[in-house]
Amino acid sequence: MWMKALYREWIGRFIFRKLNIGIGAALLLIFLLLGLVVYNNFYSILEKKEHELLSFRTEKLKMQMLDIMERFKYDSMSLYQNSNMQSSVYEMFLPDNIPSDKEDRRAIIEQNFIKNVMTHMLSRNPYTSAVMMYRLQDERLFVESQQQKYGANPSFSYKPFFESFPKAYQHPYFGSSEQLLAPADRMLYIVNPIYNPTSIHPDQVYGYHLITLNTRMITNEFDNQSADYRLIIKQNGAVLLDNRPNGQSDWAASDDLISRVTIDPYEIEMIGISYKSNLQSKLSDIAVRILCILSLSWLVCIIIIHLIQRFIVGRFNQMSKHFKKVQRNPFTPLMPISGEDEISDLMLRFNRMAQELQNHINQVYIAEIRKRNAEFIALKTQIHPHFLYNTLESLRMQAVISEQPFLAEKLYHLGRLYRWMLQPTDDLISVQEELAHTTYYLELLMLGKSNRIAIRVISEINLENCFMLKFTLQPVIENAIQHGQLEQYDDPIITVTIKREAHLLFIEIYNNGKNISAEELFRLQQLLQTENTFPEQHLGLKNIHERIKHYYGNEYGLSLPEHPSETKSFQLTMIFPYKR
Q1: Distance between CA atoms of 57 and 219, rounded to whole angstroms?
Q2: pLDDT for res 210
Q3: What is the pLDDT of residues 212-222, one digit of tens each?
Q4: What distance in Å separates the CA atoms of residue 541 and residue 545, rounded to the nearest whole number?
Q5: Which of 35, 145, 284, 354 could bridge 130 with an S-S bond, Cβ 3.0-4.6 Å?
Q6: CA distances (Å), 541 to each of 21, 58, 158, 425, 444, in order?
């Protein structure tokens, strides 16, 4: 039950939330299927490439083994060739040429000569780790290795080892042994008999020429990451080399990648194996990346869909709020329309309906109000203003006769001010005239007060040649005195700065009174920017702003700074067109 209640509260009443959940689930399923397809295709491609690489490595190893055999054959043939200075190595293996125990000097010369020959062989073949020559007549073993740690193994029986090779012309012979050299190590070897080349009897063998192969270099040449690959070299079914002897014995029955090549003349088979488990472990990183990319893509799609739907829902919420405002006040400004879609068309139709409603109210209700206001204004105008002027002038003359110049001056200012306010002149007056009557107003306001407020005017232009809307500066000055609480500060000053920029006239007013808060400044800005036929509270600045806009246009009026100034407590700018 609680799940149904939760669904009704958070999802059931919102169509776009249902749409989000449906689209999200559909996209998730699509991305999962896409990820599975990409993973399978990528695995197939990777398996194909891995098999091609395995075949290439195995074929390359075959070519290297053939090259090693050719070099070994060449070295074996060189044993029968005489040099310019000395006899051939073959002659030193003949029974008649073997030095006796008493011929030490000859034995040393022989040993040095054979050593030089073997050293030369090692230098020509980098895959050879050691060269051995064994003479059957005196069971003499000659050894030369690439690394000094390898030498003859005293515990190994070399004579049975060499005599075990067949006495036939089918050579060279391949094999592997762990005890052939000391220290013990698994090695491949290639051996050739040394016999009389002029004899037709292959069993007349005088010795053997043997090389051991560097299995570490061979396996590294096949793959330097031997944990991912397995190399097996076999001859006649016997395993000569296995770089992973602890691996699966029945490798032929596994589903791993296998590449086989054979060297037919020597019945050697080289088998390269790539484990699919290692391939899958390599692909696991790619799978994680694919999953991350698809998850991020799904999340981005959900966010984009959410933002789009939030934009749409926001427009509907805007319409709903506007409907409530129209319910409270039929003269609410029309709803702003953005875009050219179905929602904007709905907004446009509602604005037309609201406009027709306002027009109907204007015809019935506002017309009646204007009629009553006109009757009231007509009643007030029946009082002739000359009565007020004459009365003030009589009082001023009485003050002059009574020798009260201060009172006479103030009555004169009051009369001038009322004459200026009530006379039916044009709406536009010079800035100089507006400043003069504002000064009269301030002088009257300061009557009986000790802390007098001064006005400072800063201008570089002729104020008699530029004009502004009548009776707009005085309410701003009055507002600055009230909000700034200037009478509570020492030496209160209201500064009026007038300047021209292109075709605009800027009148900036600020004072040294109480600082305006950011909240109050924001409230005033919102009030000036909001159109309201029936304002909830009376505000002089709002009335002035609307007068200027209605007379000149929307680009003119009052302007407040975006942020409160630290040096200017209350700052306001009046914007008029510059007209001479």
Answers
A1: 10
A2: 95
A3: 998 888 888 78
A4: 6
A5: 145
A6: 51, 92, 118, 23, 21
**Lowest-confidence segment of 15-19, 232-236, 238-242, 258-262 by average pLDDT:** 15-19
d(Cα 575, Cα 577) in Å, to the nearest integer?
7
Amino acid type, 157: S
Q: Which of 513, 506, 517, 432 is nearest to 467 (CA)?
A: 432
Tokens of 235: 């001859």
How many angstroms separate the Cα of 475 from the Cα of each of 60, 438, 459, 489, 499?
A: 99, 9, 21, 21, 20
Confidence of residue 376 (pLDDT cuts 50, 70, 90): very low
Most confident of 54-58, 228-232, 317-321, 402-406: 54-58
Question: In angstroms, rounded to a whole number, what is the distance separating the alpha carbons of residues 127 and 216?
Answer: 9
pTM of this prediction? 0.49
CA–CA dist 387, 328 (Å, integer): 46
Task: Return d(Cα 241, Cα 177) in angstroms, integer.
Answer: 10
Q: How far is CA 399 from CA 286, 386, 411, in A?
A: 103, 20, 9
CA-to-CA dists, residue 452 to 404, 445, 480, 492, angstroms: 21, 9, 14, 7
Query: Which tokens go with 553?
Result: 């246009």
DSSP SS3 for 270? strand
CB 427 within 8 A of CB 551: yes
- Quick one: CA dihedral 539, 540, 541, 546, positive or negative? positive
DSSP 28-86: HHHHHHHHHHHHHHHHHHHHHHHHHHHHHHHHHHHHHHHHHHHHHHHHHHHTT---SSS
Answer whether 271's CB lies under 8 Å from 231's CB: yes
Residues 199/77, Cβ–Cβ less than 8 Å: no
DSSP string, 85-151: SS--TGGGGSGGGS--TT-HHHHHHHHHHHHHHHHHHHHH-TTEEEEEEEETTTTEEEEEESSTT-E
**Alpha carbon distance 223, 193 (integer Å):** 33
Confidence band for 538, pLDDT divided at 50, 70 and 90: very low
Neighbours of 494 (CB within 10 A): 23
Q: Is the pLDDT of residue 486 over 90?
A: no
CA proximity to 542, closest of 556, 531, 555, 553? 531
